[in-house]
Amino acid sequence: MRSMPSFDLVCLGAGGGPNEADLSAYLLKPSETRWEDGIIALEAGSGIGALTAILDRKPDTFHDLKLSLDTNTPSSIRAAQIYSYIQSFLISHSHLDHVLSLVLSAGSLSTPPSLYQAPFKRRRITGTKEVLDDLSTMIFSDRIWPNLASWSSESTVPDYLYLYDPIPTSKSTKE
Questions:
Q1: Whole-model pTM?
Q2: Which of 56, 66, 107, 131 has the highest CB neighbour count under 10 A?
Q3: How many angstroms separate the CA atoms of 11 and 165, rounded?
Q4: CB neighbours of 78 closer than 8 A, spacing ≥ 6?
């Protein structure tokens, strides 16, 4: 008896540089759900550019996707729509080859699917507290890039801001 797959996974990139279209990034969803129901991004090195190239080479990669766009729509527009379905970015560490597209797409993606109810409908960045601290102090600090992320889950925070979502570690539970 053949078992059904548990997840659908699309690799946007698996390298570490210098090719920005081949940086660590994977799109993941449960196989029984639709892409437009929500995607988890495992790392976020490569993004819309790499996704555009994939759609140009293999247009049927997301064969089960019901895009609201015409098939004649440019791949870059279709890629941006697919990328907007990301609900959470799971980041292992804050090197640029793991966060570049997270940074570049900050504030520009349309509202994600409503997996989360307000005030949690915002797109999340999930990682250890150390990783999220690095992003908040070194990247989203209005120095290198605008501050387009927040630790606050209050409903008064704009939906376009990423929500930092730390995962507990044995170190953080001892503090």
A1: 0.90
A2: 131
A3: 23
A4: 55, 67, 69
